[in-house]
Write a structure and sequence with these properties.
There is one protein chain. With 293 residues, the chain is mainly alpha-helical. Helix content is 72%, strand content 0%. It has 15 helices and no strands. It is globular, with a radius of gyration of 25 Å. It starts with 7 loop residues before the first helix and ends with a helix.
């Protein structure tokens, strides 16, 4: 085989591209490595800005203090429940909304499609939404957290496009065998849609794991808040329970940054660990639902 020798310009182009990629990787990863190093460093070293990429005065006190806080485990359990139950509900509702929109025989296909798309650009606003949740008696309830963001118009459109790409002959053959719409959906369409279901489920799961704004507004019961709301209180408001205060030394009037960094690591680590193993579904699933064949 004859390989064309690269010109000096091509070498310069490749060098510049790799240099930019390496620089972006360093800028992206530096905050994470600093966070890890600072969480294992002494509070004094962090306060004096002596930590860069390696722990100074190595200690695990910050993690020990955070792990002793009972509230973080309750918040973790709440987040897992909201993520698992919420993702399951969201995927199911998205499928049920998208499947009828993919059928040209449905008389309300276009009006309902326009109605769903309309919600992507216009909403009632934060205060009307809050009052609506209050009137529905969904404040300070787990069901309110599951329902307020149960479905995304954008994901409905992706699912609709995917369902439209499946050959109509499959549906017609199933109807000749006596299958109804629910049987066609769950026995034919859903099994053929596993990549996009996995991708959308991961999108929903990431959104629900990281959600905190509406949870912060809708929940006042400490036993119902998710871990992200607790993290916001720790990092911004420096609030933790009495069991944390007992672990601090007399000279520590406020929560040291090392404890805040440790709390951030503990609450974000599950997503950091899981995400790389499922990243391929984000690409394959999004492509499956983005192009109509």
């Amino acid at each position: 085989m004859n390989y064309k020798k690269k010109t000096p310009g091509e070498h310069i182009y490749i060098f510049v591209c790799y240099a930019i990629i390496i620089l972006m990787c360093v800028l992206t990863l530096f905050p994470f490595f600093y966070l890890v190093a600072a969480s294992f460093s002494g509070a004094t070293a962090v306060m004096r800005n002596e930590v860069v990429l390696w722990p100074v005065d190595f200690t695990t006190k910050a993690y020990t203090v955070v792990m002793k806080y009972k509230g973080i485990w309750m918040a973790y359990a709440n987040t897992i429940f909201y993520t698992v139950a919420g993702t399951t509900l969201s995927v199911l509702m998205t499928i049920l909304a998208a499947y009828p929109l993919s059928k040209s025989r449905w008389a309300w296909k276009k009006p309902m499609g326009l109605f769903i798309v309309f919600t992507m650009w216009f909403s009632g606003g934060m205060i009307p939404f809050y009052l609506n949740m209050k009137n529905l008696h969904l404040l300070n309830t787990r069901s309110g957290i599951l329902l307020y963001g149960a479905i995304s118009a954008f994901y409905v459109i992706i699912f609709r496009t995917h369902f439209e790409s499946i050959p109509v002959a499959l549906e017609e053959s199933a109807k000749l065998e006596g299958a109804n719409d629910f049987q066609i959906l769950f026995k034919i369409m859903v099994p053929l849609s596993k990549p996009i279901i996995a991708a959308i489920a991961l999108y929903y799961a990431i959104d629900k794991w990281n959600a905190y704004f509406w949870e912060m507004l809708l929940l006042s019961d400490e036993n119902l808040i998710p871990v992200q709301v607790l993290l916001q209180r720790i990092v911004i408001n420096s609030q933790l329970g009495q069991d944390i205060a007992k672990s601090l030394s007399p000279g520590e009037a406020t929560i040291p940054n090392t404890i805040k960094y440790a709390a951030i690591m503990i609450t974000t680590m599950p997503i950091i660990v899981i995400y790389p193993f499922f990243q391929k579904y984000f690409v394959s699933g999004a492509l499956v639902g983005s192009v109509k064949e």
